[in-house]
Amino acid sequence: MLPAGLQLSAAADLTDSVTAWLTWLGAEKRASKHTLDGYGRDLAAFLLFLTEHHGALPTLASLAALTPADIRAFLARRTEAGISRASLARGLSALRSLFARLDQQGVLHNPVMAVIRTPRLPKAAPKALSEAEAADSLEHIAEIASEPWIGDRDLALITLLYGCGLRLGEALGLTRAEAPLSDVLRVRGKGNKERIVPVLPVITEAMRAYLAACPHPLPPDGPLFVGARGGPLNPGVVQRQVRRLRAALALPESATPHALRHSFATHLLASGGDLRTIQELLGHASLSTTQRYTEVDAARLLAVHRAAHPRSRRAVPTP
């Protein structure tokens, strides 16, 4: 089914095929809601472009007749509109997936996407906080809250993000029954994939303090983290609090809720954690993704290498 509120500028046959493709992605490929929404918007923009470009609603037949020039014209229009390279790449991924699915089903065959190159994305490594910055964040987050219980909530949340390496959406998606009050936590991440992460005592302590202070009822199947009025906590509220914390502690602009997840991975690796284990804890399908998430001080690595490698040790002269 189409994401809520999405309208496609296309003939009925193509609309039905796109709807079936999105349904297949969600049901069979276990694509996340975020991915489905993004792909849906990308296809809506593409079909609207084709409507304007060709002066008629696109059909399956017109999709089968598309040329590389049509795709490049669409990319040029998106670039002129200020669309980022990352969004352009996602849009091309959506088109490739749709064309491949329709070809697999025998609905249409058009190898046009094979000759279109994906825009090269910058490989800037995500920024992690230093251990001192992470510690300061945990120490002072409660101080900027409007109410004491909200301070307890914010401390429990960012302790969970940093201590377990969760995505913000994963943490806010927890129910009261799933509160991390034991040694392990089951997390349902991207693609509905489940992973198990260990829970540190400092996390359970912060969580118990928040649960004891929260003035709102928290039913077992309701959200664990709630806002000031008792509804589900909005991620925008969390991001705003972290911005305020950033200003109070003079932290870099890269200090965001997601930076705590990078910090979790980076600090584990710097302390001797195994990259494969960190991959499992983060829920990454690819080890290369985990490598991008981990930043370790080069000088520290060099010092460890020199101390540990046999060829770096100076031989002790024999008397």
From TrEMBL:
HAMAP family named among the record's database cross-references: Recomb_XerC_XerD
Family, similarity comment: Belongs to the 'phage' integrase family. XerC subfamily.
Protein name per Swiss-Prot or TrEMBL: Tyrosine recombinase XerC
Domain of life: Bacteria
Subunit record text: Forms a cyclic heterotetrameric complex composed of two molecules of XerC and two molecules of XerD.
Compartment(s) of residence: Cytoplasm
Tagged with keyword Repeat: no
Gene3D superfamilies from the UniProt entry: 1.10.150.130, Intergrase catalytic core
Residue ranges occupied by any Tyr recombinase domain in the UniProt entry: 124-306
GO cellular component: cytoplasm
GO molecular function: DNA binding; tyrosine-based site-specific recombinase activity
A GO biological-process term: DNA transposition
Database matches in PROSITE patterns: CB, TYR_RECOMBINASE
Keyword terms of this UniProt record: Cell cycle, Cell division, Chromosome partition, Cytoplasm, DNA integration, DNA recombination, DNA-binding
GN (gene name): xerC
Main location: cytoplasm
Function: Site-specific tyrosine recombinase, which acts by catalyzing the cutting and rejoining of the recombining DNA molecules. The XerC-XerD complex is essential to convert dimers of the bacterial chromosome into monomers to permit their segregation at cell division. It also contributes to the segregational stability of plasmids.
Protein source organism: Elstera cyanobacteriorum
InterPro entries hit by this protein: CB (IPR044068), DNA_brk_join_enz (IPR011010), Integrase-like_cat_sf (IPR013762), Integrase_catalytic (IPR002104), Integrase_recombinase_N (IPR010998), Integrase_SAM-like_N (IPR004107), Tyrosine_recombinase_XerC/XerD (IPR023009), Tyrosine_recombinase_XerCD (IPR050090)
Domain Core-binding (CB): 12-103
Catalytic residues identified in the record: R167, K190, H258, R261, H284, Y293 (o-(3'-phospho-dna)-tyrosine intermediate)
